[in-house]
Structures are given as structure tokens and as C-alpha cells.
Amino acid sequence: MSKLRILHLVGSAENEFYCDLSRLYAQDCLTATAERSRYDFQIAYITPDGKWRFPASLSLEDIAIAKPMTLFAAIQFITAQNIDLVLPQMFCIPGMTHYRALFDLLKIPYIGNTPDIMAIASHKARAKAIVAAAGVKVPHGQLLRPGDVPTIPPPAVVKPASSDNSLGIALVKNVTEYDAALKTAFAYADEVIVEAFIELGREVRCGIIVKDGELVGLPLEEYQVDPISKPIRNYADKLQKKDDGNLHLMAKDHTKAWIVDPKDPITQTVQEVAKQCHQALGCRHYSLFDFRIDPKGQPWFLEAGLYCSFAPKSVISCMAKAAGISLNELLITAINQTLGNKLRQSLINLSSHAEHGS
After folding, report:
1. Rounded CA separation 236/223 (Å)
2. Cis peptide leading into residue 297 (ω within 30°)
3. What are residue 252's phi and psi, to 5 degrees?
4. Going by C-beta distance under 8 Å and a sequence separation of 6 or more, which residues neighbour residue 156?
5. What's the sign of the alpha-carbon dihedral 266, 206, 224, 314?
6. What digits encode the pLDDT tens for the residues 77-108?
């Protein structure tokens, strides 16, 4: 079987922050999964000015010397490359929607969820409404636009309706704190969610992967929270800018996040709810959901994060590793789901050949 030609779709059409975040994860993925016997990787790097580049690597040097192209020129280049499938690595809203839709138009398959599902999941209020209709418990909430007045009594959580990494989030303990919290949240989005604060409890994430058409629940990841000192997680718990200008993944610190023992009774409960969310939203290939666990052990859906970069530090990759699923096996599983059964046996044979060095 010939090598699979995979295009890594990296960068951001929105801002430098998402460009950096995308490059960080994609670079780790390329390093960890680069097997010349199995894959031929190509890179498409998009910058906030809308230009495309096709660098040899994701080093800043290679990106700087890569020729910038218009969308039209980029499409011409891509269609001449005989790409087998695309691995989307973009975290901005246009990257998760418009750029995936482009590959639907080009009839090039891609790993991960479709643009319509990504658009729904990226809007926290819409995702909550859909999973709630399927019977999943969600915090009572209110969607606000500028000028609207919150009616949910504190304690309440205020957050942008469409922003990730806890940007703009605040816990309001008194009505006098609403104005400042809303001003901060509206700086990140045109709509803001105010929702009832769910007492701790615990806070966990659950990943689902699709294997042979079946939903498989992965081990949970739990986050450091405390009813007194840290009742909610914020941006500083997830990302930090280092002195060299690169982003550091704070959530990968084992004192801030850890894998839950699969024997913990909460695991099966959360996995079943996560599968409900996956089906309700119409996800494919994989999904990832955040839950608040109240003191009675009841999971409450917080939000969906429907992306995986297949980097060692990606949440789904870490969960899979804890389940005994290697990164390469995880990627092959996603490729199988994307390209269909016709490649299944060929990829298994190729994997076995590469691992045994024969």
C-alpha cells in the first residue's frame, strides 16, 4: 500500500493567539506521528491576514520563508497534491467551520466533526440546549446580549458564549459584581452566558472515540478545583505565555489535572452521559465534553470541545494512552473512521509491518 498523504491544516484566520496555539499542538503531532513508512505529511499554515503558506515544517524559520498564497492559489496547489485526507488543527471559529467546509467542497475527507457540528459546539448555549433536549442535565442558564440584564441570582458563572480556554470567565458571588463580569465577557463575544453555579463536587472531562462504528468511553481527566480556593477554572489554569513567547500548557501539569482511576464509580456514569451528548450533537470520529460533578455525584454538562490534534498532549490522546491506546493506534482508528472500511486491513498490515521493522 502506498503512503497516506495527510495535510495538516494549521494556524488561524482570526488572531495570533490561535495561530500560536494551533502551531504548538500541530508541531507536537507532527513530531510524534511522523513515520516515513506510513505517512507523507504536508502542512498548510493560515495566518490572520487570510494568506496560506505550505512550509516544510512548523518552525518559525520555515514558516517565514514559505511563499504566502491567496485562497485561489492555495486551492490550486492543494488539488495538485493528491491529498488523501486532512487533519484539522485550527481552533478559531473560522478554522473549525469555514476551512473545514472548504474541504467538503473539494471532496477531500478530513478527520473530526463537520462544520455545522463544530459551529453548534463552539456556541455554549446552543450545545447546552441540544444536550438538554436529549435528557442531559445542564445548569440553568440565560443567554445575554449587550444591554440585557441577568436574572439568575448569584452565585452564578458568567462566560462568553463562544470562547475557549476559559477566556473571560468569572464567578459572580454578589449582584454588584455582575457589571464588571459582563464587561469582561462581552470583550470576547457578542453573546454571554450566565448560568447557575453548580456546587463542587468535582470537575472532569470525558472523551469518546468511535471504533468500528461503536462509541468507546475513555478514562476521565479530572481538574484541580476546590470549593473555597478554586471554585472554577480560569485561563491561567490552562495556558501561560512563557518568556520565549511560546505558549505553555498549564493544564498538563499533573498537580492541576490527572487521569481518574477507571474503577472510580463516577467513570461509567460520566461516560454514559458523554455518549448521550455525542449522539445528541451528531458527532463523528471523536468528541470531548466537560462536566461538573455536584456533591451528590450528578454530572452536569458544561461544554463540548470537539477537537483533537493527535499530539501527545492533546486531551483525547492522554485519555487514550491511559486506556492502553497508543497515539499511532488512535490516529489509525480515526483514519479508518474517516476513509471507511476499505483501508482498515491495509492500515493494520502496514502498522504491523512498521512496528516489527520487517
Report:
1. 13
2. no
3. -90, -5
4. 150, 171, 172, 194, 195, 196, 197
5. positive
6. 999 999 999 999 999 999 999 999 999 999 99
- For residue 290, list its beta bridge partners: 205, 303
What is d(CA 244, CA 123) in angstroms, rounded to the nearest whole number?
33
Assess contact for 231 and 215: CB atoms under 8 A. no
**Residue 353 confidence (pLDDT) above 60:** no
Q: What contacts 285, CB < 8 A, 6 or more positions away?
A: 111, 112, 113, 209, 210, 334, 337, 338
- The proportion of the chain whose per-residue pLDDT surpasses 90, expressed as a percent, equals 80
Taking a C-beta distance cutoff of 8 angstroms, is the pair 354, 35 a contact? yes
User: Confidence band (pLDDT; 50, 70, 90) for 240?
Assistant: low
Tell me if 89 sits within 8 A of 28, measured CB to CB: no
Each residue's pLDDT tens digit, 183-219 = 999 999 999 999 999 998 899 999 999 999 999 999 9
Burial per residue of 283-296, b for 16 or more beta-carbon CB atoms within 10 angstroms, e otherwise: bbbbbbbbbbbeee
Cβ–Cβ < 8 Å for 190, 144: no
Check the CA dihedral 93-95-98-100 and report its sign: negative
Q: Are 154 and 175 in contact (CB under 8 A)?
A: yes
Can you list the positions of beta strands (E) in 50-99?
52-53, 85-88
Our measurement of the distance from residue 101's CA atom to the centroid of its chain's CA atoms, rounded to an integer in Å, reads 17
Alpha-carbon torsion, ordered 203, 93, 311, 262, to 10 deg: 20
Cα 237 to Cα 91, 248, 254, 286, 337, distances in angstroms: 18, 11, 12, 24, 33
- pLDDT category at 339 given cuts 50, 70, 90 is very high
CA angle 355, 9, 332 (to 5 degrees): 25
Distance CA 5, CA 157 (A): 44
Q: Which phi-psi region, left, alpha or beta, contains residue 287 (left: φ > 0; alpha: ψ -120 to 50)?
A: beta
Q: What are phi and psi of 82, to 5 degrees?
A: 55, 50
Cell 480515526 locates to 334
